[in-house]
Amino acid sequence: MNIFGLLCGALALLAAPHAMAQEPYPNRPVQLVMPFGPGGSDAMFRAFAASMSNVMKQQFVVINREGASGRIGTTQVALAKPDGYTLLVGPTTPITNLPYTMKDLPYQFDSFDTVCQVFVNAFTITVRADSPYKSLKDILDAARANPGKLNYGHAGVFTGPHINVETLSKQANVKMQDLAFRGDAAMLLRLLGGDLDFGVNSTGAISTRPDVRPIAVFWDRRHPALPNVPTVTELGYPSSPPGYQGVFAPKGTPRPVIETLEKACEVATQDETLKGHAARQGVPLVYLRSADFAKAARADYELKGRIHKELGLKAE
Question: Could you tell me the pTM of the whole model?
Fold first, then answer.
């Protein structure tokens, strides 16, 4: 090969990385890892993924990687290549709770970059439609009369629903038995089957179901989808924050990618189709940009640390 040919080849090699760096994002499907099973937040994020696909002109696909209270799916994203093609969607709890409660966790709170908050998810104490328990007082009275006998289901150890009830139990000075499930759908099946006295679930999972009855909401305000259901605050117990639901990326994801996703999230949350789905599910859309979501997540992380200390919970 002559000198001219060698020079051309060298220039092509030098230009190749630059050309690759300039490729638009995203140029292939983006995987949204949901660390819990179907039901509850899963349905909302599938609708959100459809809106993101329309905005970005590329497929955004939700993949369920449930198990270990969210640890399995969250770990997958924490260890993924930080290129914007593997993201975490769902509640902050696997990031803000599990570092306090699980030994040898492969990630920590700072293992992620926040992208955006999409919605908030209040948790609800729910019984079967034919349950003898008509109110939170009924449940607490039964728990006092039968210490350790009442059982309830939730979507995983140290998730928001679990922590909320354990906090309530301490405030009310009662003892109840908890049972963990892989998501709201699995828990509700057992509730309807008569295996549970009550369940604690995302409000969106039950707001339109006739076979269950919500009796209290863990929030400091009445839920728009359940305006006739009292909050635990109204019933004399300190309020619990709702679940913050959003999008996270592995730490080190390029800032331009985060900013592209952040802007797309803002547009997606204004989509009329997504708004309609959220209204039917009874889920308030509350968009926060990356920086504001990071502050909310940090505050939640610090709050969970105080709660775990107060409850005397130990890492397992």
Answer: 0.79
